[in-house]
Design goal:
Blueprint (H helix, E strand, L loop, with lengths): L6 H24 L6 H6 L11 H16 L4 H14 L7 H11 L4 H7 L10 H4 L2 H6 L4 H13 L5 H19 L14 H9 L6 H9 L8 H8 L7 H15 L3 H9 L5 H16 L6 H6 L6
Helix pairs in contact: 1-3, 1-16, 3-4, 4-5, 9-10, 10-11, 10-14, 10-16, 11-12, 11-14, 12-14, 13-14, 14-15, 14-16, 15-16
């Protein structure tokens, strides 16, 4: 298989997204611990180590496949997902993921297994969105390709169109954040007009409940609190793409100029906070660059596999 001529640059971007995603994932996971409310109020970092979850485990597989193939090879991705699951199944995988990843590991074809869940509707969960930022990073120069590769990455586990739409929206946000990276546009241009960023994500997000949530986000201005945004858009408590992705895209639009601010704001919405922080962290890292992800946060996160 021929890799793109600029594969090294593309995979470096994907690894940057993985870095931000994994730090966000591990940071958000800490706030499920007891007695972390005061830390949140005072913005004091949680006790280390920060352990990453299935969000990072599955993103590692995406980067692995992109590095080897230069595209989303769905069969290879399904095998990588299942292998990592079997190596370490206690990373916070949902009940559906436990079922279909174990089936794939036993040799079942991924497509019928994932299509059969939820009475044949497939999953509309936020799992496709939580791991997809590296896809947006790798294909950032072609937004149509971003949308298609994101859809393919989600389809391996999320047969429902909403599960795929959530992945598409987040991957587009990641690609756009890359295009506005700090060395090109030092200031984040959407902080005072978050709707302008959301509109760009909406342009290629398929119609449905996830896109409807993005449309609701257009009404939120820069003075809206994260609690107010979560009240309108959801915070991932339902673990679905429509209940998770709109808030994350708005949080990136509003706070994307600072990794720390974006993560503190996002975790303050509660809900599925490891996943919302993974999504936001993976996207914002592509704007702020490696130096914009604080060294102390990176050191606090459990090490990634070599």
């Amino acid at each position: 298989m021929n890799l793109p001529h600029d594969h090294a640059d593309r995979i470096a971007r994907a690894r940057l997204a993985l870095e931000g995603l994994s730090v966000g994932d591990a940071f958000g996971q800490c706030f499920f611990r007891p007695f972390t409310g005061k830390l949140l109020i005072r913005r004091r970092l949680p006790q280390t180590p920060w352990l990453w979850t299935d969000d990072t485990a599955m993103a590692l597989s995406i980067v692995e496949v992109l590095d080897a193939r230069g595209e989303i090879d769905q069969d290879a991705l399904a095998i990588a997902f299942a292998r990592r699951y079997m190596e370490d199944p206690r990373r916070g995988y949902g009940a559906g993921a436990h079922h279909y990843l174990a089936e794939i590991a036993r040799g079942a074809p991924w497509r019928p297994v994932t299509q059969a869940v939820f009475e044949g509707q497939g999953s509309l969960g936020n799992g496709g969105a939580m791991r997809v930022a590296p896809v947006g990073a790798y294909f950032a120069d072609d937004l149509d390709r971003v949308a298609e590769e994101a859809r393919r990455s989600a389809e391996v586990t999320h047969a429902h169109p909403e599960g795929q739409a959530g992945a598409i929206a987040v991957a587009l946000a990641a690609a756009l954040a890359r295009r506005h990276r700090r060395e090109v546009a030092p200031a984040w241009p959407f902080a005072d007009e978050p709707a302008a960023f959301v509109v760009q994500v909406m342009e290629r997000t398929p119609p449905g409940a996830t896109r409807d949530g993005l449309e609701r986000a257009l009404a939120l201005g820069p003075s809206t609190s994260i609690a107010g945004a979560a009240g309108l858009l959801g915070n991932g408590s339902r673990v679905s793409a429509p209940d998770t992705v709109p808030l994350c895209v708005w949080a990136v639009a509003r706070f994307g100029g600072s990794f720390e601010e974006a993560l503190w704001q996002t975790v303050s919405a509660f809900g599925d906070r490891d996943t919302t922080c993974a999504i936001v962290g993976g996207v914002v890292a592509l704007h702020v660059g490696e130096g914009g992800v604080p060294a102390a946060w990176r050191a606090a996160r459990e090490a990634l596999p070599g």
